[in-house]
Structures are given as structure tokens and as C-alpha cells.
Design a protein that fits this description.
0% strand; mainly alpha; 5 helices; 252 residues
Length: 252
């Protein structure tokens, strides 16, 4: 086999293997990107939504209960209720907007054919829970409005009776929110675990590719070096024969 053929044979084999490992690494790279995107674009924003709903629904109810307690203590609850009315309107607006945006986001995720079946099912369940919360929100706000009116009119007992209606929403804005938070935590942990495994496999592929490239370089260097040494040896031998021939001629 000529030197050219040896070099070509040694080059094509490792290059094909390197190209194969490079192509194989694209899949885990894409999957890692998808997992990161799911965590950053989906799970973390939804977790923030859960925190927003949790905080604002609690604040909405607790502010009214605080006003009722101050009323019983002799404070001017009517003035307190009026001062807090604008804040409750703002809270209601935040909750309404939050549910609208979240519904659109969840619809997009559930209908995305690129998402895994597990993720789409989990998001469909979360969408159902948020849908129930969104439908219950106007009634929840109505309880606050009636309680606020009763407190403003000085009807403390009526306000306490109205406040009891908040209990109907404890499970919805309490246990259901906790269940959504747990689901998101599980999805995030699963994405992190999958990313770790994919990254480990990607590192192995990169090590293999670097090893093949190193073997290719070493093999090519050995062939060229051996070929050069063989040529140099023939050159030395040829020079020696010429010198021997010249010595013989001069002796004659």
C-alpha cells in the first residue's frame, strides 16, 4: 500500500467516527436545551404564579379580617375599610390578569406537540386546577365586597357571618395551590435529573471524539515519520554505496 493510500485510509476511518459522534451529540444537546427551556420558560414562571395567587388571596381575606378585629376593638373600621378598598381592587386586578396570562401559557404548553406526554399531562392537570380557581375568583371577590360593605356600615355581626364564606375557598386557594407547587417541583427535579444524565452522556461522547482525533493525529504522525525514516535510511545507504564505488575506482 502506498503512503497516499495509507494516509487516506487512516484519515477516513477516524473522520467518519468523529463525524458520527458529533452527530450523535446533537440529540442530547437539543434535549438539554429543551429541559432548560422548560424550567426557565414554564416551571419557574408558573411557580411565581402560584406564589402570587397564594399571597394575594391570603392578603385579600386577611385585610378584611383585620378590619373586623379593629372594629371590635373600637377602632374606626369604616375608615380602615375605605383606605384598603383601593388596595383590594388592585389585588383583584392582579389576580384576574395573572389567571388570564397563565391560562394562555398553559394552553400553549398542553397543545405543543414537541413537549413530552408526561409534561403535557401534568400541565393539563395544572390547567384544570387554575381553571377552577379562575372561575371561583369572582365569587371570592364578591365575599370580600359584601364583607367590606357590612364593615363600612358598622354591621360587625353581619360582616363576621359573610367572612365565614371565605372557608369555601380554603381548599381551592390552599391545598390545590400546594398540589400545583408540588407538581412543578417534581417536574423541575425531573428536568434537572434528565439534564444531568444527558450531560454525562455528552461528556462521554466528547471524550470519545477527542480520543479518536488524538489517535488519528498520532497514527498519521507515525506513518509519515516511519516513511521519512525509511526514505532517509535509503538515502544513507545509497550515499554509502556511492562512496564505496568512488573508493574502488580511485584504487584502480
Amino acid at each position: 500500500m502506498t503512503l497516499r493510500r495509507k494516509i487516506v485510509a487512516l484519515t477516513l476511518g477516524p473522520l467518519l467516527l468523529i463525524a458520527t459522534t458529533a452527530a450523535a451529540s446533537l440529540l442530547p444537546q437539543n434535549r438539554i436545551s429543551e429541559h432548560f427551556s422548560a424550567v426557565v420558560d414554564d416551571y419557574l414562571p408558573l411557580d411565581a404564579v402560584v406564589a402570587t395567587v397564594d399571597v394575594f388571596t391570603d392578603r385579600y381575606e386577611l385585610d378584611l379580617r383585620l378590619a373586623a378585629d379593629l372594629r371590635e376593638a373600637g377602632a374606626n373600621a369604616g375608615a380602615i375599610v375605605q383606605r384598603g378598598k383601593a388596595e383590594r381592587v388592585r389585588e383583584a386586578g392582579v389576580l384576574t390578569t395573572t389567571f388570564q396570562k397563565t391560562e394562555a401559557q398553559l394552553d400553549q404548553i398542553v397543545e405543543d406537540p414537541r413537549a413530552s406526554v408526561e409534561k403535557r399531562l401534568a400541565m393539563a392537570d395544572i390547567r384544570g386546577r387554575f381553571g377552577c380557581m379562575k372561575r371561583a375568583l369572582p365569587n371570592f371577590m364578591e365575599v370580600g365586597r359584601r364583607m367590606s360593605e357590612a364593615l363600612g356600615a358598622g354591621r360587625t355581626e353581619a360582616a363576621e357571618h359573610v367572612a365565614a364564606d371565605f372557608a369555601h375557598y380554603r381548599r381551592l386557594f390552599g391545598e390545590d395551590l400546594t398540589a400545583v407547587r408540588d407538581q412543578l417541583a417534581a417536574l423541575t427535579a425531573g428536568a434537572a435529573g434528565d439534564t444531568y444524565r444527558l450531560n454525562r452522556g455528552l461528556i462521554i461522547l466528547e471524550v470519545v471524539r477527542l480520543g479518536l482525533a488524538s489517535l488519528f493525529g498520532v497514527g498519521l504522525s507515525l506513518i509519515v515519520s516511519n516513511r521519512m525514516m525509511a526514505g532517509l535510511q535509503r538515502l544513507i545507504e545509497g550515499a554509502g554505496r556511492i562512496q564505496d564505488g568512488q573508493a574502488t575506482t580511485s584504487c584502480r
